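> example.struct
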């Protein structure tokens, strides 16, 4: 609970089976660089700790699995089955800018299970009644927009501000973070995005650093209204997490082309047993 309140991920482990009955039920945990407890063997503790980065994707905040580990204790080899859980704070959607797009985007972010936080420098816009689904609504100063909003790599930051200068102030601070969020999106026309990138380049940022920014943000759905734009951003976030392609499923599966295009009119549809 202490780790989660600090916004940290924590892994917990318990031995569920072992040739050495004294290990069963032993517990161990790791949060950041801190460890606690033991699985009954320093070698087993080390093996589980070394495996953690490969067991759970870095953007996940929940997970559970069992794995078999070999270890050595006092010159003797052994093995144990260890049940490991990942607990983390819910990933956040930090929306910078509280205009028309932010309202449906906050609603969709909440529906996706993200902790939504909305930031703006205008008190009339950054108002709780405009964003009832948001966990936090803050009035900020764009000279230091994330002063009261510490960010983690698994957070999502979406810039929907009202001006190029505000986008730029946010991007400078995001790109200079030691561990910037994996998902940084910025709304805007091609001209606005290009102008922002040109300014970043003049100020010493590399093209690789600029490439971290998804701009213009969202999938190409052709929508124009605030709700349609919010849907395209939310869809890209789902694709980002799930590893999808963004290709329409009808084009991906090609059911008619694969199964029906060679049949002439009037050809009876084969029975289910025949197709199996």
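> example.seq
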């Amino acid at each position: 609970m202490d780790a989660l309140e600090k916004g940290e991920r924590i892994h917990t482990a318990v031995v569920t089976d072992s040739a050495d009955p004294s290990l069963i039920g032993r517990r161990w945990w790791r949060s950041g660089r801190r460890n606690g407890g033991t699985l009954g063997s320093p070698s087993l503790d080390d093996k589980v700790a070394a495996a953690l980065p490969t067991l759970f994707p870095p953007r996940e905040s929940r997970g559970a699995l069992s794995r078999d580990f070999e270890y050595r204790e006092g010159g003797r080899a052994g093995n144990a089955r260890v049940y490991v859980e990942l607990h983390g704070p819910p990933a956040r959607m930090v929306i910078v800018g509280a205009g028309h797009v932010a309202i449906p985007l906050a609603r969709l972010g909440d529906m996706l299970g993200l902790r939504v936080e909305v930031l703006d420098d205008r008190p009339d816009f950054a108002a709780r009644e405009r964003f009832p689904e948001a966990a936090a609504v803050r009035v900020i100063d764009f000279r230091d927009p994330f002063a009261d909003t510490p960010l983690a790599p698994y957070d999502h930051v979406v810039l929907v501000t009202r001006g190029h200068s505000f986008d730029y102030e946010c991007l400078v601070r995001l790109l200079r973070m030691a561990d910037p969020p994996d998902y940084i999106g910025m709304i805007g026309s091609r001209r606005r995005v290009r102008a922002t990138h040109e300014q970043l380049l003049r100020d010493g940022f590399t093209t690789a650093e600029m490439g971290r920014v998804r701009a213009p943000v969202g999938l190409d759905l052709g929508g124009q209204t605030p709700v349609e734009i919010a849907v395209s951003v939310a869809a890209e976030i789902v694709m980002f997490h799930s590893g999808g392609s963004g290709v329409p499923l009808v084009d991906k599966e090609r059911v008619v082309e694969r199964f029906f295009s060679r049949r002439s009119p009037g050809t009876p549809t084969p029975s289910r047993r025949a197709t199996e």
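> remarks
The first helix runs from residue 2 to 5.
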